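Notebook, p. 212. Picked up where the previous page left off. The plan for this session was modest: take the two constructs that came back from the sequencing core last week, fold each one, and keep the raw output in the notebook itself so nobody has to go hunting through shared drives later. Recording the first one now, exactly as returned: residue sequence, then the structure token string.
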Amino acid sequence: MGEYAKIDARDGSQLKEEPAKPAERNGNTMSKAAVIYWSGTGNTETMANAVLAGLREAGAEAELFAVDKIAPAEAAGYDKLALGCPSMGAEVLEEAEFEPFFTKLENSIAGKPVALFGSYGWGDGEWMRNWKDRCEAKDANLVTEGLIANETPDDTALAACKDLGRKLAEA
């Protein structure tokens, strides 16, 4: 396929090719973030909404998705990811939807700012430590060790979620 010159329709002159510039805000290059979560009881969804609020308060362009509403390939196109999943069973990621999603996504997170969060009802956070280790093995740029809330997130946990969103926005 040949290359074509872009011509200004007003005067017939050739237009200069300039690379597209990312959106800017306050002199900083903007990037898009996705907050992607799975929630069985609503606890992790509540956390996801607080992370989203923190991202947006920090000026980030961010979108919220339940894990069944976004494909791993689409998620990989975002510059920053906040991923939320509660502890399930023997302290593992939810196995029917979130684990298969993350398994397909994890090869696309190298160098990408990633924030992990989720709720739990038992155990000591082993699922989050394992998830963090998986992300580090794929060279993700984790913004924190992972944020966990026991059962329904209280005001302190929700404030931490907003802070997590702000940290991701700044990463």
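Okay, moving on. Second construct, recorded in the same format:
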Amino acid sequence: MNGRGSPWERFLPADALHFPGPRWVPVVLGLYCAVLTGRSLVHILAPDGGAESIATIDTDVEGGDVIIGMFAQWGLTQLMLAAVVWVVVLRYRGLVPLAALLVWVEPVLRIVVGQMKPIETVGTAPGATASYLLVPGLLVLLVASLYLRPEPPEPDRPTLTTAPEPAHDNED
């Protein structure tokens, strides 16, 4: 967008070190990544993986330990996504649009899979509600990542094509 190459080239740019888009986009992506990192660590480190204490899934059933184990594995997958996003935010900022696409697709697919294979919960899991709120917000982030900052204007440079007129004193 803004005329410098195809938007598709922004996902895998030749220059992966520099992000030519709005400066706020990597900042917001980093903040979201911090949340993603925290969420993944809860799933890995919490005794119940967050299954019962957060997602309100009854783990006092046959196979409850399997549910807890699956939450921990899900946390590991989330941590791997967060690690990729951290690498982009901290080093390869040219890949910010690709990272924004990845973090947008994740809740979209979570919603789709949740509709295909609903999980019985005692209450409403925060993640179920958050996914619906994240999708439009992360879409704004993705679209914004495809826009380019305007190029700074060329500085005015004197031209050598005409010489300045010499000053004339009219003393008659």
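Notes on construct two before I forget. The radius of gyration is 26 Å.
Flagging for discussion at group meeting.
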